Amino acid sequence: MATPVESRPNRASLVLSTLILVAAVANLNLAVANVALPDIGRAFDASQTSLNLIAVGFSVGLAASVLYLGAVGDRYGRKTMLVLGMTLSVPASLLAGFAPNEYVLFAARVIGGLSAGMAYPTTLALITALWAGAGRTKAIALWSAIGGGLSALGPLVAGALLEWFFWGSVFLVTIPLAVIALVMTAVFVPSHVNESSAPVDHFGGTVSVILVGALVLGINFLPVDGMETIALSALAVALVAGIAFVLRQMRARDPLYDLHVAGRRIFWVAAVAGIVVFGTLMGVLYISQQYLQNVLAYSTLAAGSAALPAAIVMVLVAPQSAKLVEARGARFTLLCGYLAILVGLGVALTLWDENADYWVIALGFMFLGAGVGLAGTPASHSLTGSVPVSRAGMASGTADLQRDLGGAIVQSILGALLTAGYAASLTKTIEATPQASQVSEQTQSELEKSFAGAVTIAERYPQYGQQIIAAARSAFLDGDGRAYSAAIGIVLIGATLVFFAFPRRDAERELLARYEREDRTAEGALPQG
Known about the structure:
Elements: H1 12-31, H2 33-44, H3 48-76, H4 78-97, H5 102-130, H6 134-164, H7 169-172, H8 175-188, H9 202-221, H10 228-251, H11 259-262, H12 265-294, H13 300-306, H14 308-328, H15 330-351, H16 358-385, H17 392-432, H18 441-449, H19 451-460, H20 465-501, H21 505-525
Helix pairs in contact: 1-5, 1-6, 1-8, 2-3, 2-6, 2-12, 3-4, 3-5, 3-9, 3-17, 4-5, 4-8, 5-6, 5-17, 6-12, 6-13, 6-14, 6-16, 9-10, 9-17, 12-15, 12-16, 12-17, 12-20, 14-15, 14-16, 15-16, 15-20, 16-17, 17-18, 17-20, 18-19, 19-20
């Protein structure tokens, strides 16, 4: 197979810096909420389910919109979508920062996700369109590493802010970055690069939004007492929307999501592999921040700083990942990443307890960061390398879904298991106490609602305060044990899929060359005009 010819845009460093900064706004917005969740829970007396929804709200808006808005960018202008996305992120961040209750905050997070849906998929689409050859691999490695690093660095930024400012400050911090990114986009990013002239499948786009939104809400509500009907209804809507979306894409003349391309082995295996990798990262960051503050009593700054080893290792490992992809192939690199993630999860499951020293916390984060740094590049590179440039928006949208849909689904699953495990453990503890008959139904409901609810009850009854907090910490550990066990199972399934279904290096290169020939033949057969 001939080595791909390298190409890059004018002022390549400035263009890439701009695209990474745009992605940074989305990645930071995605990550900052986790550290603030205990403060938000106390401020609004929010249930664990409400906190779960606030945590995934940004991911829901982003995951629901990336396919649709990626296609809109391919058709009507990627630079325009960057500008619109950065512009909308400012009022969305302001609304989140000054939200009067958890419902407005959730809505603001979803709107913020929609703004990111306009801009974030466009960044990778432009890298795919503007770079070729090994230069594209390196650009994607930087994009992936810095994005993943910021996801891990976000808690540190949020923790520092919460030491001196109110909880809403974590949502305001990205506003200056969005303004700078907006100006740099206007100055440095090319206006039209390999964009499609095909009409956008607006119906399919609308169905895809309903599909993702209903799926994530259904997963979150499923473990909540009294919400089973709503949860099952949402999941039924997601199932119907999923069937409708597939049928629409099979019949549409210009589908939003080309199922022929999506059926390519390199594409769909890489897509699933990335969902597992990035979903696990977001899920662990979500649970670990609550563990550090609730169980180990870390301050917000200390809790945010605790994840810093993941960000550092991720950024250091990613360039080596790009070299490994070129030398050994995507399959080998993905499996190395999965192995490191499994070790990190094993550390979290077995060693992150009530008496864990920081070195144990750092060790788990370091392995997690190494795994994501290794696996992130091949997961994204395999997507963009297996589609025609005219479908760059579809590939970048799928790469974004790896992070956002993967994050929303895995985080929702782990959050649901945490909620169910916490409530079940606390119920058993209450039933086993001699004072069980004296605990009112309202008090028990408040205790089981969330860790913040237990803190409120402990403050109300100081004579039982230590016992209540100890029971809540033990219940939290029971819940997060279930979550980490599930995460290990998810990663093992992903590793098995990659091992058996993803081609080895030489076969991968042959397949990519065949895809390229097919795409050139198809483009040559299109009517001109």
